[in-house]
């Protein structure tokens, strides 16, 4: 099989991730912080080690303020619903995943907040000046993706972050598509809240993720329960990470995530983007007639700039085929896995003009090879010529 759906989840995982999970499950699979015996202490130590590795990767100065969640969706909901108050104003963009759009839309619909959704230009980039002009005295939160899961464009979060901080609001960044591929530094880029998932670029298993909580962000806990530490308090403890980590964590998943993050730190996250962009350029060059396909500007970005400003995903369409039909042909006839449809980002597809059917998205990972991209190009050539 040729797997080109890494924007949904990375597959296969590196062997170190599988070994890390199995080794922990077999030897130290106790409940962290829920006892003083050796197995529980080993589990707590493993989780602390994973926080420290993530802090290095994400430029977070205080590892204890990295809260483990189920995924990026969980972290985004935790941030949005924990920060916004009645009467607040929030800003987002048309590029957002439903994990950002839906909680904000509901709060707006219920009259809790007012919401501004920013358009983007033909380059699929959020203009920091538009953010600046949209901020009002009641703006509490700006919630934006760092990388669009539809267009693959890397957004200028650092420039936005500095503007948002100057105006006294908070910046929430959705790093579901960027963590593990794009170098991230929450301090440098003035990011107050950063939600990430563990099962995509960080190479870990599903059911893992987290939220980096900066010093300026005060979040009300929305999941309350046991923390394994101060059990005497009648309410959730104030200190991090326990303030936002009620209940037993996904210990086995975090063990796998640790190995994925360790691998990225050893390899150097700065090596990932050149690898991914090179694969997309290989794919484009291998096509006999790229002009048969609709690229939404991606072909020019790849041909003229080598994919600069993008991560390793591209959306395309072929005239005469619905995206779902083309994806099914690739799967059933060529054993190539891609993703078709709206990619949980309907506003982004309205921006592209591809709503309601969407596009066919090909997304690569660190284990994808150039030969696989050439075979994918040959398959598409064959379908286009039929």
What does this structure look like?
- The protein is α/β, with parallel strands linked by helices and 386 residues long.
- 39% of the residues lie in helices and 15% in strands.
- The chain contains 12 helices and 13 strands.
- The strands form 3 sheets. A 7-stranded mixed sheet has the order 2-8-7-6-5-3-4, with helices on both faces. A 4-stranded antiparallel sheet has the order 9-10-13-12, with helices on one face.
- Helix 6 links the parallel strand 5 and strand 6 (170-174).
- Helix 1 (15-27) runs antiparallel to helix 7 (251-267), helix 8 (272-286) packs parallel to helix 12 (370-385) and helix 10 (323-334) crosses helix 12 (370-385).
- The chain is globular and about 70 Å long.
- The mean pLDDT is 95.
């Amino acid at each position: 099989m040729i797997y080109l759906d890494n924007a949904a989840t990375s597959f296969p995982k590196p062997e170190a991730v599988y070994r890390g999970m199995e080794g922990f499950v077999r030897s130290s699979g106790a409940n962290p912080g829920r006892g003083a015996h050796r197995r529980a202490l080993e589990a707590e130590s493993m989780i602390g080690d994973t926080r420290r590795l993530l802090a290095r990767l994400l430029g977070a100065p205080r590892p204890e303020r990295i809260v483990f969640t189920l995924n990026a969706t969980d972290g985004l909901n935790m941030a949005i619903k924990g920060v916004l108050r009645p009467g607040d104003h929030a800003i987002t963009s048309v590029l957002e995943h439903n994990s950002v759009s839906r909680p904000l839309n509901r709060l707006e619909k219920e009259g809790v907040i007012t919401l501004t959704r920013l358009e983007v230009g033909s380059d699929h980039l959020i203009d920091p000046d538009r953010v600046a002009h949209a901020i009002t005295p009641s703006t509490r939160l700006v919630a934006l993706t760092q990388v669009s899961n539809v267009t693959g464009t890397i957004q200028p979060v650092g420039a936005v972050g500095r503007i948002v901080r100057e105006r006294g609001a908070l910046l929430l960044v959705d790093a579901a598509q960027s963590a593990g591929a794009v170098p991230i530094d929450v301090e440098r880029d003035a990011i107050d809240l950063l939600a990430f998932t563990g099962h995509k670029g960080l190479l870990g298993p599903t059911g893992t993720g987290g939220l980096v909580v900066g010093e300026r962000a005060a979040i009300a806990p929305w999941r309350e329960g046991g923390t394994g530490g101060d059990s005497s308090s009648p309410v959730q403890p104030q200190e991090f990470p326990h303030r936002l980590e009620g209940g037993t964590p996904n210990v086995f998943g975090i063990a796998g995530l640790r190995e994925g993050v360790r691998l990225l730190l050893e390899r150097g996250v700065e090596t990932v983007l050149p690898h991914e962009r090179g694969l997309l350029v290989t794919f484009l060059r291998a096509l006999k007639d790229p002009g048969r396909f609709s690229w939404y500007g991606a072909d020019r970005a790849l041909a003229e700039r080598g994919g600069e400003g993008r991560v390793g995903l591209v959306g395309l369409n072929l005239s005469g085929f619905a995206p779902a039909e083309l994806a099914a042909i690739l799967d059933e006839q060529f054993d190539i896995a891609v993703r078709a449809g709206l990619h949980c980002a309907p506003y982004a597809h309205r921006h592209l003009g591809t709503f309601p059917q969407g596009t066919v998205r090909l997304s690569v990972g660190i284990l994808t090879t150039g030969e696989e991209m050439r075979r994918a190009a040959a398959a598409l050539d064959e379908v286009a010529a039929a």
